[in-house]
Design a protein that fits this description.
By secondary structure, the chain is α/β, with parallel strands linked by helices. The protein is built from 20 helices and 15 strands. The strands form 4 sheets. Strands 6, 7, 8, 9, 10, 13, 14 and 15 form an 8-stranded mixed beta sheet that branches. Helix 1 packs across helix 9, helix 3 packs across helix 4 and helix 13 crosses helix 16. The longest helix is centred in the last third of the chain and has 22 residues. The chain is elongated.
């Protein structure tokens, strides 16, 4: 197994290696470049392999030597910033054969110079260079479109491959899992422009304007809560998302958060509603560490297919498009057939029978929320936002309706939004709320809004929901849904 995590880390720091350029013959390249924030230096114990890695990383042209003209820039990339005269003096000192360039042997001597003592080793750069050399099949010092196909094929590995990898990694140790996850998240984010579905992307940006990739959302939540003392040791995590398998893919939000917080309690059923109810929430509550904290993430979900249709999704292993969320689209179909709504669902629907108690509940809770749907940009988008409001109210009811919550936990953090399932390019999450509650003698607790700190500005939903009135109703928590 070739580990590539450090390669992705190097590029993600804003290195020119992350850039794509177009040559006159329309050949896109990734260059093996030299930006190393904290590179290999003689002030620490390092191996011959470390030195070769550092040299390869600054040998931009893969010529086997560093010419005088780029020597100062190479030093700067290693973290050594000196003026031109000092750089020339250093070059002259170590250009032993006076050939006008510094080769690998001369570079090794250079790295022992006192001028390089402030440079620190970063051995993970080896993985970046190993991967670059692996895919630079012609040894040209750049990866062209043809060579990049091999990388893209790994980035787009399907769920079957990821599941197989996870099973293997579980047997050989958690370190591999961590490395692979970091690699996958970076690749998904930075290479997705190469294979995204344009119409799906356009639709998502229109109806979920501030959606974040799953990995970015996970990081934002962890960073914000980490500043408040939430740790895996003192926090128990629960999620209320739809039981659809598409929401439990490796490397997507639920799996990422369970991995970060080291366990996860499931509250959700169809549509993401917390059908575990107050008894399920109480069971979750009773598992909290002593004087610990609760973290709850809730979300309905919706698919967007390659044609940009909201409420539809092509699933792995299927050629036909299916509904997502099937429960939400089905409930809307039931209401449409009864004349309770004015539009048919954009995702199509055959599920017009109340086939089980969970769907019946969803239909009953959704029906009074469909006013104004005819003004919305898309009926299923409108329905999905209403599903969020339903789940939000039910989570509130669980927390506030559990009188002993503050006997077990000293803080309860709740993050809510909409999970957006995509066939390629990674799943997204449209955050809509993030707050923490602390014991203050009331059932609700003292509420601190964390949304702006974690996610920035809230989305403008007027164009999505169709009117200011619809947006105000959507955010109104005074009339709470109840199971």
């Amino acid at each position: 197994m070739i580990k590539t995590t450090a390669f992705f880390f190097l590029l993600s720091q804003g290195s020119p290696a992350a850039a794509f350029t177009s040559a006159p013959i329309m050949k896109s390249h990734i260059r093996a470049t030299s930006t190393i924030t904290s590179s290999i230096g003689a002030s620490a114990a390092f191996s011959n392999e470390d030195l070769e890695t550092a040299f390869f990383s600054i040998d931009v042209e893969s010529s086997g030597s560093i010419p005088r003209s780029s020597f100062a820039d190479a030093l700067a990339d290693l973290g050594v910033v000196i003026d031109d005269s000092a750089a020339d003096a250093l070059f002259d000192k170590y250009d032993a054969d006076k050939g006008g360039s510094i080769d690998l042997d001369e570079f090794k001597l250079l790295m022992a110079d006192p001028a390089m003592t402030e440079v620190k080793p970063q051995r993970d750069v080896k993985f970046a260079m190993d991967m670059f050399k692996k895919y630079d099949q012609d040894g040209s010092g750049s990866i062209d479109k043809g060579e990049f196909r091999a990388i893209a094929s790994e980035i787009q590995a399907d769920a079957r491959r990821r599941s197989l990898f996870s099973v293997f990694a579980a047997a050989v140790g958690a370190t591999i899992v961590a490395d692979y996850s970091q690699e996958y998240q970076w690749a998904q984010k930075n290479f997705r422009s190469l294979y995204i579905e344009p119409k799906a992307e356009e639709a998502q940006n229109k109806v979920f304007p501030t959606a974040l990739l799953s990995g970015d959302l996970d990081e934002a939540i962890a960073k914000t809560l980490g500043g408040r003392g939430f740790t895996p040791a003192n926090t128990i995590f629960a999620h209320s998302v739809c039981s659809d398998e598409v929401n439990n893919k490796d490397e997507q939000l639920v799996a990422l958060m369970v991995n970060r917080w080291q366990e996860g309690f499931s509250l959700g059923g169809l549509g993401g509603l917390p059908f575990a109810g107050k008894s399920g929430f109480r069971a979750f509550l009773h598992h909290v560490p002593d004087e610990g904290k609760l973290l709850v993430m809730f979300a309905p979900h919706v698919g967007i297919d390659a044609a940009g249709k909201v409420g539809a999704l092509q699933r792995l292993g299927q050629t036909k498009v299916s509904k997502a969320c099937g429960a939400a689209v089905g409930a809307y179909g039931v209401l449409s057939s009864k004349g309770a709504a004015t539009s048919k669902p954009s995702g199509g629907n055959d599920d017009t029978d109340l086939f089980d108690p969970q769907l019946t509940t969803i239909v009953n809770l959704l029906e009074p929320r469909l006013g104004g749907i005819e003004k919305a940009v898309d009926p299923i988008s409108f329905v999905t936002y209403q599903m969020y409001a339903i789940v939000r109210d039910l989570i509130d009811e669980c927390v506030e309706g559990t009188p002993d919550v503050w006997d077990y936990a000293n803080e309860v953090a709740i993050v809510g939004g909409i999970m957006i399932n995509r066939y390629v390019g990674g799943d997204f999450f449209q955050p809509l709320s993030f707050e923490t509650r602390m014991k203050d003698g009331s059932a609700r607790g003292k509420v601190v809004d964390l949304y702006d700190e974690a996610f920035g500005a809230r989305p403008d939903l007027i164009g999505v929901l169709g009117s200011e009135e619809a947006v105000a109703t959507f955010y109104d928590r005074s009339k709470r849904a109840k199971l």
